[in-house]
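Subject: two folds for Thursday's group meeting

Dear M.,

Sorry for the delay on this. The cluster queue was jammed most of the week, so I only got both jobs back this morning. I'm pasting them in the order they finished. Each block is the input sequence followed by the predicted structure tokens. Could you check whether the formatting survives your parser before we put anything on slides? The first protein is the one we discussed after the seminar.
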Amino acid sequence: MQRYHDREWGVPVHSDRRLFEFLILEGAQAGLSWSTILRKRAGYRRAFANFDIARVARFDKTTTSQLVKNPGIVQNRLKIASTINNAKSALAIQRELGSLDKFLWQFVKGKPLQHAHRDGRALPSTSKEAQAMSVALRESGFTFVGPTICYAFMQAVGMVNDHVRSCFRWSEVRKLA
């Protein structure tokens, strides 16, 4: 967890593949701890073709049946089906807009929101931007993308700098904007 915080969390991501990965992992985390998902991250990468959106979109019922038995991921049929469905929806967005990055970053106008919380207990669990993202993703066919999941996603991929001011990463991530 410390390594993830110190190296990844809050760093702006613009790769469609990595954005897709984080969106899937945040959805998989619903009802579970983030540490569980981080422990299974390598398993997710293996199981879901390193989050190659086009490849995942082609997964079929046979693949789904195999994935439900895979101890390297969360073995929840709905979350697995959601990953495949979301890959199909991401492909449609890429065809329409050219990239998933363009679609997702529009909710922060292409630039990370810089917060300056003094206390981690003050961190919100959602925002108007996350709510708008959730609605737009659902309208585009995505699942497991509620406002809380979207906000956690936005924090993870650097759309929101929610490191507290006393954290050494707050100013480092702020400079990446």
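Second protein, same layout:
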Amino acid sequence: MKSSIKILIVEDNIFTAQNIENSLKEFGYSTIDIAISSTQAIRKIKNNRPELILLDLHLKNGYTGIDVASHKEVLFRIPIIYITNVKDSQILLELQTTKPKAYLSKPIKEEELEFAVSLALNLSEKKGLQELGNGFNYNLETQKLLKNRKDIPLTKYENTLLHRLIIAKGELVRLEDLGILLWGGWNIQIGSSLRTLIGSLRKKIGSEMILNVPSLGYKLTLPKDKT
């Protein structure tokens, strides 16, 4: 039951934390706690043993979310979702060492928050077939692309990219967010690799299905979006 899953929000802006808490309650989660500092977070983690931590990267008093994620009570034991707008490649590589389940950018979109939490907790919301049109479907449970019920082989990077575009439900996914997801950062070289990857995926599902918003990102044109 969602209501029994213990979630800890670590965010030093209490208004932001409360907004996240309210959204989570709308999704059906009710066992939610808030920590506004790294010290308070570690204490609550030891005492309450949360099953998921939503972790702001920038905390007050010189501490960061990485300090919390790297603590022996947390590292590789509790699923983490980072909340960050950072683009520094070195910091992003450091984040990757703590094996987060997802990243969220501020301002947080409710649909992305809901899916990220479901994904991190491995809940059933991520399961089922997503119709893509032109005979294509994507199985969110097995993460396989199908056309007319036959498997369409994808590389690891193609699959990760397509999966991310699908869960955005037709909304724009920013270039930087894709770079972080796929390669742990963003720079000119990664931008070139992303364009090559987009081209490769388009050859398999059709060029009209992936839309480019110049200098911003990409989005998927799902059947409900077509006129």
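Two things I noticed about the second structure. The chain has two domains: 2-124, 127-225. Residues 2-124 form a domain with the Rossmann fold fold (CATH 3.40.50.2300).

Cheers,
T.
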